[in-house]
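Handout, section 3.2

Students often ask what a structure token actually looks like in practice. Rather than define it abstractly, here is a full record for DNA 3'-5' helicase. The first block is the sequence as you would receive it.
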Amino acid sequence: MKMVSPAEWRPVGLEDLEPAAWEALKYDGNSCVVAGPGSGKSEFLAQRAAYLLQTHICPPPYRILAISYKREAAQNLQDRIVRTCSPEQSRRFASVTFDAFTVGLARRFRKALPAAWQLTPNFRVVFPDQGTIRESLRNSRLDAPGDWKAEVGGILYKTFEIYEGGSWRLPPESDQVNSGTHFALARWWLSLLAADPISTPNFILLNRLAELIQRVNPQVARALAATYKYVFVDECQDTTFAQYDFLESLFNNSGTIVTSVGDDKQRIMSFGGARPDFFAVFQADFGARRFVLRCNYRSSPSLVKLQHVLARQIDEDVPEVESRTDGLLPSSAAQMWYSVSAESELRALSSAIAKDMNLRRLVPRDYAILTRNRPDSYERQVEAAMAHEGLTVRNESRDVGGIALQDLMAQSLTRAVVPFLKLAARERDPESWISACKIVQDLRGSDYEDDPTLQRALRELNVFISGLRRDACRLSVGRENARLLAEKIIEFFDLEQTALAFPDYRDSEFLVLVKDALLFHLADSAEGATSWDAVIENFLGAGSVPLMTIHKSKGLEFDTIVLIGLDDQGWWQYSRGNVEELSTFFVAVSRAKQRVVFLYCRERGKRSKVAELYELLESAGVPWRDRR
Ligand SMILES: Nc1ncnc2c1ncn2[C@@H]1O[C@H](COP(=O)(O)OP(=O)(O)OP(=O)(O)O)[C@@H](O)[C@H]1O
């Protein structure tokens, strides 16, 4: 792909950007781009990457590092760059999650850790249970020096790691502690590092170790800053204290230019330790310029108006936003439905979805049913009602062998297997063929198109796909044979090479867990299917209406959002004025492009705790519909 001059560069795949986005895109200093839902923040990062790479403002061998909060978001960004830039350019764009990046660094530079904080060569990332933390705190209180005992005794175990751990930069020596809190933290973390036979750190500790590594080894920090000329932070409102310190130690005043994008009103990860003051602190520390975007490219004008009413409840100074999408519905885009029984509620819902799909030529994935908590508690009922209309629903949070379905689908292994399955099932599928070639290139570790290793690997791929097609023709469609095909594909990948190609799988136990979950879900997808294409469709959930929590819907968009269980039962954490809960509600509403339906069913619960939400909807003019 030839180089483009900055003046000639145009957005890829979009007509235009709003003026503030243009300004931010071309700005060559630290910046934060603050904008509401649907304003194109993720799109902006993809365009800025394309701009920097295609104009050679980020010339070879420099790279761009994009850090996202969620794996799907990181993958989505990488995919966009692969589609819009040349292979050489997209190889210089690394899109990772914060956790994957810090785990990778801790692994790579493990030996550069001070002796006191050594990790074993292999380690397993764990999510310690609250009981273990509690016990460690109890022991620390017993062993703490006299005047620290009371302080340790007062630590809340539930927030111990997130808040106390989040705000303590590790000292090079583990005994350099000057408070009871740090004494308890050091004890707890050292116990994770010393676990037998391998260390079992969690993500907070790994973040802290990664920060320490580059603080005590300036050459490591310099090498990283010299590699990454530009760093992007997506969904920066969810950055934790520990992650922020890492970012600050590594890239502030390093010559690297950092662009953060986010939306304060979508901060729904405080329970995970998101720092509430990210924008202010980042602007002050990094001398970052602030850009505010004011367009919404996702939602229709009436939905943007509704979002504004909710946004003002979270932040009364929030600016008005302009919708850049036409409203396509003749009747109210937002409605509250009242039902007496769950049965009548869901009958009305499934019949409305079936009719709407027909009328507007939509597909099941244009709809999403969102819940505040526990989608599994609605799954059966929704499934039964949808079946009456010939529709299926898929609980994206369903546990598949130890991993949530939605997370399984975002796994690198799953994403690698899918094009191979498609090639097995179809005579021609050029897009899958291109993906398969790219996967082989990644797996066999070859970077150059004229590399003989790659040529050999592609020949091997050709032979393998022909064999796989023959197998798919020969084998009847069913559970066992679906497993067999996938096992052949994974065998062709080679687990060792897979672990090397995808940093997430350095922990081989995790790779095995993902593999088993994938085989299990594929076998399930073959149940009742009459063709391999149908198996793949079931596997991907293409023909089902997704059911998921609001947290899982973050960053996604659908034509129609249905919020089920908007009552005290479903929103048991709600209390008037609770900003995090309001933000969660805001995230749900802002996923919709054209329509949002709020379901209230008397049988499910009362409306006292959540009265504020109904008052807000009524004040925004959202009408009630009787569906009893
Ligand atoms: N300049 C643009 N012109 C046309 N469409 C755009 C533009 N920017 C973004 N979009 C489209 O608008 C939608 C929302 O974009 P995107 O997901 O990037 O928004 P976001 O700000 O990251 O959203 P959120 O914070 O709500 O998850 C997408 O469908 C995207 O393709």
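Discussion prompt for tutorial groups: The first strand starts at residue 31 and ends at 34. How would you have guessed this from the sequence alone?
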